[in-house]
Amino acid sequence: MARGEAARDHAALAAPPAVGAEPRPAKSLLRFLTCGSVDDGKSTLIGRLLHDTRMLTDDQRAALEADSRRHGTQGADIDFALLVDGLSAEREQGITIDVAYRYFETPARKFIVADTPGHEQYTRNMVTGASTADLAILLVDARKGLLTQTRRHACLVNLLGIRNIVLAVNKMDLVGHDEGVFAAIVAEFRAFAGRIGMSEPVAIPLSALRGENVTAPAPAMPWYRGPTLLAHLETVEVDAARAQARPFRLPVQWVNRPSQAFRGFAGLIASGTVRPGDEVRVLPAGRTTRVARIVTMDGDLAAAVAGQSVTLTLADEIDCARGSVIAAADAPPQMADQFEATIVWMDAAPLHVGRGYWLKLGTETVSASVAAPKYAINVNTLEHLAAKTLEMNAIGVAEIRCDRAIVFEPYAESRTLGGFILIDKLTNATVAAGMLHFALRRSQNVHWQALEVSREARAALKNQKPAVLWFTGLSGAGKSTIANLVEKRLHRMNRHTFLLDGDNVRHGLCRDLGFTEADRIENIRRVGEVARLMADAGLIVITAFISPFRAEREMVRRMLPEGEFVEIFVDTPLEVAEARDVKGLYAKARAGRLANFTGIDSPYEPPEAPEIRIDTTAVSPEEAARHIVDRLLGED
Amino acid sequence: MTPQAMPRVAARTPDHLDHLDRLEAEAIHILREVVAETEKPVMLYSVGKDSAVMLHLAQKAFYPAPPPFPLLHIASGWDFAAMLAHRDRMAAATGMELLVHHNDAAAAQGVNPFDTPTPVYTRLMLTETLTAALDQHGFDAAFGGARRDEEKARAKERVFSFRGANHAWDPRNQRPELWNLYNARKRRGETIRVFPLSNWTEQDVWAYIARENVPLVPLYFAAERPTVRRGDMLLVVDDDRFRFRPGERAEPRWVRFRTLGCYPLTGAIESRAMTLPEILAEMRASRVSERAGRAVDHDEAASMEKKKQEGYF
Hints:
Strand content of chain A: 25-35%
Largest interface: A-B, 89 and 76 residues
Distance between the termini of chain A: 80 Å
Oligomer: heterodimer
């Protein structure tokens, strides 16, 4: 029978065959990552694993042989690397441009391999591949020994919390299968691993090209008595067992509510075990209840564990939505809004200190900003470097401030509740990956005091609806002029107003700030917070700031209840504003005596969908003010 | 866990999730993320075995509710009759809305799999029909059953694959995907193709179908069917529109399909495997990849990468 043949072939290579034809053996799953620099033979190793575990079919093998003759680097022999180098664009250039995933299996296990390139995008790609891996193979060329890249890869793998490390010393055939060469490389690596607090590596001498110690033992290296690489991959313990041993946590992905009678909370269990009747706490609500049922299409379960996607029902109706975490009541996770974290920057645009980004952690998304880095890490030497920002592929440690508290665990304890991504609010790009260390104490000690008089009550007393009229536009566009006219009109109509002017706040609230991009972001953040307090007090707030960046205007919009932020774009072409030059600033900037001037050597990002747009070349300031007040009060 | 054989029952107890349990949990997580984070998702349903598994996972993900999105079938007009029957049966059984789109204009102009060069036929009847359907309904996310092990170009594609306003895939501009955190935010006009089966192999799909009793179109099982041998391909004469070449005639053979598409372009394999265990045994012994039976992929080198850049799934 065909299946028996396949099993025998595997047996000759590595693992013991499944006993008997039935039942089908249970396979576990291992995800691993291969790292190495350009010529270490990484692709050859993966190609060899696919080949020796019979994952190649006849037509794939024929295609490989044809490709080897055309593009290969191994003469008449098969170039296994070509199996792995996917896209035609990169095949022509002979480089791997991105993370690729490969699959193979033996009777014991299914393997998912993340193959990451060794060239300049290494950090971003390696961190991506490592984030889901249980094990990492660090490849070293026996002729070259440990390189700077090897240390860098080890640091990154360690940073991502991978505990199973294989040091694969490749190309042993090119150093005469010399035990001394192998021993020296292993000793040097062990010393380095100890210094960075990495777990003990398993070292294997091999030749991917010749297939020695990959899936079959190497007669040429009788001095090595350990397992082949494949035998080790088949038996190493995976992290799933650790996650199951920790307290129960279920980040809620989706609330399943097909009818009034059923309310289920769906999600992937991050850690622990759950059974009906278990006492659980739902965060952030902080309420305790019991698990009623574990519902699946195949019938209710008596228990579920980390790694399963389930739907729970609870004994009591309590506040629980996407982003909530259902946790063991006797060991709930913490909540905080300020953290220290390690951040890996992945975008071409560098980190903007203080700017709001989306932070996604588990199933929760909040607005968050990153403080100036405490330091950046040189991944080759682990040195701490001073840094004002983080560029693409840089790694740093910084404080994170979220706009509300989130449920979390340190990354070292939970990848799910400690790992996060940052998303640019305008481009929607994933710009960074982060790993939470701990909550800042001040965040845990500063609580919100509930106030007895609500913002609605304050506004009702003034007989008005609070709003923030946010004027934006170039210097000299006419913002302050129109804003003053609007306030006068509203005041005459017995409305309670306050005007925050860009120039005026720089004499007090913001006098410590300059005009760099970071300072401008902080300036707007402060004004936004003050405007919010005043709106909470029931006032109609009018602000006149250039506020050149969309992201910061959006940040202020999100501080306020829906509909209270009214963005007014005072649209004056640069040449018109420059021709007016009321304060003489354009002349100074053009003469080079004023740096970072919006429109000249600093960008202005016009609003994409402002509530109100004023074309100052078409209407007078008085007409503009009347129009704005009509729009505002018409909506009362 | 040891590599020793372990009885299947033990594998389903909580302490030992096997590889299918993990793949299932991951796919369900992906399906739920999309429903939670996008506005108007749809599931591309091709009626094949991968679609069958994806649909089964969707039912599990949202049980006891039906999956909260419609099914979309792109009918080329040359689909196997058995596939259309199975499609309608599954839509009824799941209680999901079924949308069927077909390029009437191209068909009226005489585009067909016999006379039109295959790449042009595929682009007009499948790729363009799909993108037009997505645009017409305003779907912002579409599930597809593609797997990374199918083809080299797929191996580098993300689970959440973003397409610009023209539906093109840009392999050099993909978002990093870390842990199981998917970033579903998009600009106006952008859409997402989502592949919940990214990490599944063909073997996994068959093993899962066997374990879960996933309903399959009968074409996957061997039966005596009228066939024509044409070069390397073994074609099944599914209806009287089949165009015979000189000297060709229909001969009964025991065949089944590993992969399904338009019947005049899809090769069958000779087989007597009439049950899932027999198919699994045949799979393990197989020395040919599943796409070898598709005329569509042979036509140009790197053809998948090119098609994806045009908006193909």
